[in-house]
């Protein structure tokens, strides 16, 4: 499940970044837990979408090269992480990228 989550987050980072943009993956250990972060230099998530980003009712957005998606990937990521007793969150600024 963790592999699927990471693959989806990296894929989203690539999809929503311009050519030549950056996507990074980092892992750190803190108090017996591991924090995985996927950060991109992409287009970011508009505030009106941020409120419902992990819901199943989210509409799919096209990527920077008009890539299509189902709009359900982040909802599944949340379910998979919570099934493993973890947490998922994000920070994003429109035009500045996102970090999950």
Short description:
The protein has 100 residues and is an alpha+beta fold.
Record keyword descriptors for this entry.
globular; two-stranded antiparallel ribbon; 100 residues; 3 helices; 22% strand; alpha+beta; two-stranded antiparallel sheet
Set down the secondary structure blueprint:
Elements: H1 2-15, E1 23-30, E2 33-40, H2 47-50, H3 73-83, E3 91-93, E4 97-99
Antiparallel strand pairs: 1-2, 3-4
Helix pairs in contact: 1-3
Could you explain how this protein is built, in words?
There is one protein chain. The protein has a two-stranded antiparallel ribbon with strand order 1-2. Strands 3-4 form a two-stranded antiparallel ribbon. It is 29% helix and 22% strand. The protein has helices at residues 2-15, 47-50, 73-83; strands spanning 23-30, 33-40, 91-93, 97-99. It is an alpha+beta fold and 100 residues long. It has 3 helices and 4 strands. The radius of gyration is 13 Å and the shape is globular.
Structural class: alpha+beta
Note poorly predicted spans: none
Question: What's the N-to-C terminus distance?
Answer: 16 Å
Number of helices: 3
Oligomer: single chain
Average pLDDT over all residues: 90
Shape: globular
Radius of gyration: 13 Å
Largest pleated sheet: 2 strands, antiparallel
Helix content, binned percent: 25-40%
Strand line-up across the major sheet: 1-2
Query: Proportion of β residues?
Result: 15-25%
How many beta-strand segments?
4
Q: Could you give the order of the helices and strands?
A: HEEHHEE
